Amino acid sequence: MTLKMAAVTVDLVLLTIRHGSLHVLLIRRGIEPFRGRWALPGGFVRDDEDLGAAAARELREETGVDPSTGHFEQLATYGTPGRDPRGRVVTVAYLAMLPDLPAPTAGSDAAGAEWRPIDEATGLAFDHDRILADGLERARAKLEYTPLATAFCAPEFTVADLRGVYETVWRATLDPRNFHRKVTSAEGFIAPTGHSVTRDRGRPAQLFRRGPATLLHPPLLRPEVTG
User: Fold this and answer.
1) CA dist list (Å): 16 to 71, 102, 109, 222
2) What is the pLDDT of residues 9-54, one digit of tens each?
């Protein structure tokens, strides 16, 4: 039996919240295939690096951010024949959830790079629509049973800031008092910093940081997602 080697790439679903809406980082391809089309950032794995190192390198190159800044995890592997017109290419996708970031700089093979609202991220190159949909669903589900909503927040945040993350990612309106009760009663979810902040001439709001918990007990179950 003759072995036929497949090329391996990594693709990144990079999510952040900008101007009150969920955004994903996209690059406009400057080369074929799909020249001129929007795509998820990514690239081929080098001979001397493993998958995680390749994904971390792409993240640094596209955003200037170290993976330790936010949440970074492997999402899934995609290897449908024909997904890449150049030949047999298997990609390993990674999901990153990061605080608000500055405008990105396009890599050498890209014509441009932008943070784009999720609603505008359609018709992507390759099978990136599917990968993005999987990444979005993973992020929504993770917010139910882990404290990873804090990955979208500054190191210190208010409960209202955190509620805004849930509402943005879930596309839902949450009752402020009920949400406050749930997140403050979930053991180890958030911890008070001892500081407060006043915004828009309102009452001082207590500041929190992420607590030590890795799972939420009880979980924060989301309402029905509308899109």
Assistant:
1) 11, 11, 23, 19
2) 999 999 999 989 999 999 999 889 999 999 999 999 999 999 999 9
Q: Provide the pLDDT for residue 31.
A: 87
User: What's the DSSP call for residue 100?
Assistant: -
Helix 159-170 with 176-185: angle, nearest 10 deg: 110
Question: Tokens in use for 220?
Answer: 């924060």
Find the helix or strand (DSSP H, E) in which 134 lies: helix 128-145
Per-residue pLDDT tens for 74-91? 999 999 999 999 999 999
Cα gap 162→204, rounded to integer Å: 16
Listed in sequence order, the residues at least 6 apart from 148 whose beta carbon sits closer than 8 Å to its beta carbon are: 71, 97, 139, 142
Domains of the chain with CATH codes: 7-139 (3.90.79.10), 146-210 (1.10.10.10)
**Cα Rg, the chain, nearest whole Å:** 19
- At position 167, the amino acid (one-letter code) is E
Whether pTM exceeds 0.85: yes
